[in-house]
Specification:
single chain; 6-stranded mixed beta sheet; alpha+beta
């Protein structure tokens, strides 16, 4: 009987730790809202890109994907991104969808241009 009680207690502890881990994983992701300005980009297709995906500049997270819509005239995908307010992006920059390795998630990589005019909200 004592062995069964010990096994039950150990099992309960393992379940508690697993539940705690999943709670932490879902409440502390890097998908939190960023206070900043909105920028949109148009792509031919956005396969595998999800709302909340990271937006990176030189490998550093500077924002996240807010929404994805379909342009009904051109049938292109329009992605709205929220960029951190302290980051300014030149207006001639380009954006591409990249992947974190073979099984990683997709994110948007921004390649800065050389313009002195910066993108504004919208």
């Amino acid at each position: 009987m004592k062995i069964t009680a010990i096994e039950t207690i150990v099992g309960a502890i393992v379940i508690f730790i697993a539940v705690s881990f999943f709670y932490f994983a879902y409440t502390m992701p890097s998908v939190k809202s960023i206070n900043g300005y909105n920028v949109s980009a148009t792509f031919n297709k956005v396969s595998g890109l999800v709302n909340g995906a990271e937006v990176r500049l030189s490998g550093i997270k500077i924002g996240s994907v807010s929404s994805q819509n379909l342009d009904l005239e051109t049938y292109d995908a329009v992605v709205l991104m929220e960029i951190s307010e302290d980051i300014r992006i030149p207006e001639d920059s380009s954006a591409k969808i990249s992947s974190q390795g073979l099984l990683g998630t997709n994110y948007i990589e921004i390649e800065p241009g050389g313009s002195y005019t910066m993108l504004a909200d919208g």
